[in-house]
Structures are given as C-alpha cells and as structure tokens.
Amino acid sequence: MVSRFYFSGVLPRAEEIELPPAVAHHALKVLRLGSGDAVVLFDGSGGELHARLDVRARQAMAVDGQWREVSRESPLDIVLVQALASSDRMDWVVQKAVELGAVGIIPVQAARSVLRLAGERADKKREHWQQVVIAACEQCGRNRLPFVAPVQSLAACLAQVPEVARWVFVPGGEPLSAIQPVPASIHLLVGPEGGWSDEELDLCLRSNSRAISLGPRVLRTETAGLAALAALQARAGDF
Fold it and tell me: What's the pTM?
C-alpha cells in the first residue's frame, strides 16, 4: 500500500512540496521510506496529492505531485453520539467509527460514564481523539476529516440541530432492520457501560429520538454504535 500522510493546513497544488517535520520524521524514521517511494498527501478538505519522495540533505520533499479529486465518503451523513467510556474503549470507537464512514463523533458525559472529563482534561482528550481521527483517515483512505466535538452533556447535545433524525439504542426498541427508509442524515446515540439512566432516556425520547433495538443480545458500549454504523452502511450506504 502507498503511504498516506495528513498535511496540516492547505495543501499546495504543486509538483514539489516540502514535508512538515512531523510528517518527514514519520515517513523516514518510522516507515523507513526513501527517495523514489510513492506517497499520498491530503489536507482533510477532499482530494489527494499523489507524489514520490525525494530525500535531500535536510529536507524531505514530495515531488512530481499530481492532484486527484478522490472521494471515499459514504452517501450517509452519520454522527456517532457516544457516551464516554474508558479511554482505550473511546480510542477504539473513534478509530473504527472513522473507518466505517461516520462524519463526526460527539462525546457525551453520561450519568453512568466510567470516564469523567471536564475542563483542560476534556480539551486534551478531544485533541487526542482528533489525532486518532487523522491516523484512521491515513489508514483507511478518507480525504475528509470527521470532526470530534467538545465533550458535552446529553442535554447540550440534544439541543443542537433539532431537525436531525436521532436514534437512541435501547432494549425493546424498534428493530433497526424494520426501519424504512434509512434517513440520509442521522445521529446515533449510544449509552455508557451501565446504559442510559431513566432520566437520560426520557430526555432523549422527549427530544424526538427514536428508540431502536440492535437485536436480542445486549451489546457493549464500544460495539453498539459500530454495529449500527456497519448495518446502515450495508443497507443504504457504501458497502
């Protein structure tokens, strides 16, 4: 596979581009690439630059660049509203949601969340998750970066974009397989390890969220949203 690198800022449409220090270090020291190796650069706004690496004395250059308008986005506009889980599980969820085509992740501080975040710690976690997004895009080929919203309360999340379709996953809800048609734009609400509290579930339903079931088995918080994403992509997306 050709190595892909995220270029922070606006990627010049040029035949020769100096790689930023962090990108050059990753290409040369981590991946052990050398002059003549093919590379792809993208800046998250769509499209990608195909080039080859030219290693010079104190520079790593992408040369003979050719811009290509390549899109690997799903036709579905899916945002994963994920109640905070333990750090390693959140990293997993963010990474796989990007691979499965989510356009954004909204981390929510739920009543039963094991992980508690606020202030500077929440900001640092958000920055970390955005780096997870970038790495996932480099790996899976997406040329548009999904967003990671600030950590917020469920009430604050539900107050945004009131007209969007919302599905909250609960036992005994409508079977996902029975819903026709699949909305083109949708927020998927996934509870924490202990599930949504009664108050949170009531708030979701009063905010016009649709109660959806993912089958007869109880899925873990890090599984539920990803299973729903995969199912929706298979039904009406790009699978």
Answer: 0.92
